[in-house]
Specification:
Length: about 110
């Protein structure tokens, strides 16, 4: 599903996807901290094909600290309502629909 989302973004906004499924490695231990599913200049998109129960902790504790100040977005079509509510409470944009995600990340012309 990650590659499908990255391809949809690349089709809508060519050459904006910086990386797909890039591992973030702890320089001290060499262990993988997390992976960044889809990276753009201003966004990191966490993609999930399940209800997302475990994603709040991963997003807040591992992805956001490694996102370089970029907005972290959660994309999961089957996301549960409680997951959506808790992530929105944490100011994490959440999307179930690829068209809505694309609309959100597309640069707005002034």
């Amino acid at each position: 599903m990650v590659k499908t989302v990255a391809e949809a973004i690349d089709q809508a906004m060519p050459n904006t996807v910086l990386s797909v499924e890039r591992d973030m490695i702890d320089p001290k231990t060499g262990r993988t901290l997390t992976d960044l599913d889809v990276e753009l200049n201003n966004f990191v998109i966490e993609v999930h094909d399940g209800n997302g129960k475990s994603k709040r902790t991963q997003i807040n504790d591992r992805i956001k600290p490694n996102a370089g100040g970029r907005t972290v977005i959660f994309f999961s079509p089957p996301m549960g309502g409680a997951v959506e509510k808790s992530l929105r409470k944490d100011n994490t944009p959440v999307f179930r629909d690829i068209k809505e995600l694309l609309k959100f990340i597309t640069p707005k012309n002034p």
